[in-house]
Amino acid sequence: MLSLRHFLPAAERGGLFHVMVDKLGLRAALESRPHSSAVMKRAQERCAGCGREDACQTWLETNAHPDEAPAFCKNHDMFERLKHDIEAERKYRAA
Fold it and tell me: What region holds the DUF6455 domain (predicted)?
């Protein structure tokens, strides 16, 4: 069975990363980080090399307001660390 992987070049497959970032509401936080361009480039490369584009596309279409990325996401841990950092900064500012 053919998947998106067979039809899309790596750069476009990595575009699912940007959809995921927006779906999780993490764009502003990610872009505000030091070296954000390099971090996003590496994350997009992980995304492009994943091989689960079909599952990702389906997940993105069926999860309107997710709390976290799917467990199979190669960037799941990065997204969780980013959310943890955001929460820690929010608590620090409130103190």
Answer: 13-84
- Residues spanned by the domain of 70: 4-94
Enter the pTM of the model.
0.81
Cα(91)–Cα(83) distance, integer angstroms = 12
Nearest alpha carbon to residue 47 among 57, 37, 34, 61: 57
d(CA 28, CA 10): 24
- Please state the domain count of the chain: 1
Q: Read off φ and ψ for residue 77, nearest 5 degrees.
A: -65, -35
The 10s digit of each residue's pLDDT in 50-66 is 889 999 999 999 999 99
7-37 in b/e burial notation, b at 16+ Cβ within 10 A? Answer: eeeeeebbbbbeebbebbebeebbeeeeeee
Query: 């490369």: which residue's tokens?
Result: 45
